[in-house]
Design a protein that fits this description.
Elements lengths: L5 H5 L3 E5 L4 H13 L5 E7 L3 H13 L5 H7 L3 H8 E6 L11 H10 L2 E4 L10 H19 L7 E5 L9 E4 L18 H17 L4 H18 L5 H14 L7 E6 L1 E3 L16 H9 L5 E3 L8 E3 H14 L8 E4 L9 H14 L16 E3 L2 H22 L4 H28 L2 E4 L2 H9 L2 H6 L9 H25 L1
Parallel strand pairs: 1-2, 1-4, 2-3, 4-5, 5-7, 6-13, 7-11, 8-10, 9-12
Helix pairs in contact: 2-12, 7-8, 7-10, 8-9, 9-10, 12-16, 14-15
Length: about 500
């Protein structure tokens, strides 16, 4: 008989979570422990040299976090011992076979006990080295599935991907598996093993030529972008995640593999408390740089929807899949986002940012309030680059030509150069998202939501339709991002 709800689904189950020190994974660990304290065990795979190091990482990067405050209050002085009775750190590396687990007895126990696998380990940089992105985002999937194939009790393998693996630029992006692709010039088919061989050969070539570490890093990043665009993806991150999906789809008839594709993930909406965030990603790069006065120009289609989703909604969607995905179902892809259910236009986001920082200006290191104005938004990269020349490149060249004779001249020059570098870097990284004219279908996800009973809809709410974007962004998200920025800046000054 199938479990009747999410708490029953997790009762006495053993869950393996890879990438356990990541932003979403930490929230998932907290939610599972809070939702079902009688979960049997959580194996947390973390990159570490040995077991002791793995335990130290979990203690410092997970156990000490503010998100566990409600569990600390519940268990009082017994919290630490209770946590370690449920959580078992595992030193490993998804880029290696057997997940890099060196302890054979531990690996054997995991194979015998694991019921549910949630694979979240990834490198998320848009300009990651190609060899690194392939090893983690693509081969990591292969190694997780190979490990899962040996798990006698495995019931579900949930792989975290990204909605932007879709290569279409307009229309409705369906919850469909990816298929092999031909290059844009029609000269070659995408072959993952050939991509691995190609990356290894390029790396070996650079090493044999005695290239510096910096040259190797820059070259491998450039190659990642080139290979991605050859086959129709924007960057190495989405390309290698897409190849991971393609590998996973090969096993759908043999193993219970499902994939969740979140859109751009931002701070928590409600749980375990509003506004918790780690790192500045996705729209937060806009928020922080705009608020600091460094970003006066943007690239984007103001009429299009910027698809964002709070982190706790993603976690709840994952738990919904874990508890409701039907055995033997042909559906294996689940989108979780907002562009279909509750779209937020880029123009609305910009308006809210402008309103927020007009009311609550950022205070810089000199103690001055930074004044913001409505940013200049360009609908194409070509016109954006023209503006960059007019507003930055030409003035910078003029300043060099006339000489930087005073400290004021030097400060003005470096401030303008920093603005230019930040603005161009953000535009080049995010144009595939900000100029994207599609929306993400979430029919499969909605189907699962209708399968939940009323209790589970309260325990794991995952419908973005109910988010009030103005209230959430103005009162929760932007304040949370800026608070995080302030903490990090204070830490850097120590």
């Amino acid at each position: 008989m199938e479990p009747s709800g999410v708490t029953e689904r997790l009762l006495n189950r053993t869950v393996l979570i890879t990438g356990a020190t990541g932003f979403i994974a930490k929230l998932l660990v907290e939610k599972i422990l809070r939702l079902q304290p009688r979960v049997k065990r959580l194996y947390l795979l973390v990159r570490a040299g040995d077991q002791v190091s793995a335990e130290k990482r979990v203690e410092s990067e997970i156990l000490q976090l503010q998100i566990f405050e409600s569990l600390r209050e519940k268990h009082q002085t017994h919290f630490s011992s209770w946590f370690w009775s449920k959580v078992y750190p595992v030193a490993g590396d998804v880029s290696l076979k057997n997940l890099g687990i060196g302890n054979a007895d531990l690996a054997k126990d995991m194979v015998e006990e694991t019921n549910i696998i949630v694979h979240m380990a990834a490198t998320v940089s848009f300009r990651e080295r190609y060899d690194t992105a392939l090893a983690i985002n693509t081969m990591g999937v292969k190694h997780v599935i190979e490990f899962a194939s040996r798990c006698a009790k495995v019931e579900l393998i949930l792989l975290a991907s990204t909605a932007i693996v879709n290569v279409d630029k307009a229309g409705i992006m369906l919850e469909k598996p990816l298929h092999q692709r031909r290059s844009y010039d029609g000269q070659s088919d995408l072959d993952i093993s050939e991509e691995m061989t190609f990356a290894e050969a390029k790396l070996k070539e650079l090493i044999c030529s005695n290239a510096s570490e910096d040259t190797i890093r820059r070259t491998m990043k450039k190659i990642g972008t080139q290979r991605a665009r050859k086959f129709g993806w924007a960057n190495a991150y989405v390309f290698t995640k897409a190849m991971g999906e393609i590998l996973a789809c090969e096993y759908r008839s043999q193993l219970p593999v499902v994939i969740i594709r979140p859109t751009a993930t931002i701070s928590t909406w409600k749980e375990p408390f509003p506004g918790w965030i780690e790192g500045v990603n996705t729209i937060d790069t806009w928020v922080t740089n705009y608020g600091k006065g460094r970003m006066k120009f943007l690239v984007g289609d103001t009429a299009t929807a910027i698809d964002i989703v709070p982190a706790d909604i993603v976690v709840n969607a994952m738990l919904c899949i874990v508890s409701c995905h039907p055995q033997g179902s042909l559906d294996m892809i689940y989108h979780i986002g907002s562009s279909t259910r509750n779209p937020l236009k880029i123009s609305e986001l910009i308006h809210l940012m402008c309103r927020y920082f007009t009311k609550k200006p950022y205070i810089n290191v000199e103690g001055d309030a930074v004044k913001v104005r409505q940013p200049n938004v360009q609908a194409a990269m070509a016109s954006f680059y023209e503006l960059m020349d007019i507003h930055y490149k030409v003035p910078l060249q003029d300043m060099i030509r006339h000489g930087l004779s005073t400290a004021i001249d030097h400060n003005r020059y470096y401030q303008l150069k920093r603005e230019y570098n930040v603005t161009v870097a953000i535009a080049e990284a995010y144009w595939p998202v900000t100029l994207f004219k599609g929306r993400f279908d979430d029919s499969n996800m909605q189907k699962l939501i209708t399968m939940m009973d009323e209790r589970d809809r309260e325990l794991i709410p995952c419908d973005t339709k109910f988010i009030n974007w103005e209230k959430y962004l103005m009162e929760t998200h932007i304040p949370g991002v800026m608070e995080y920025e302030s903490r990090e800046a204070a830490r850097a000054r120590l």
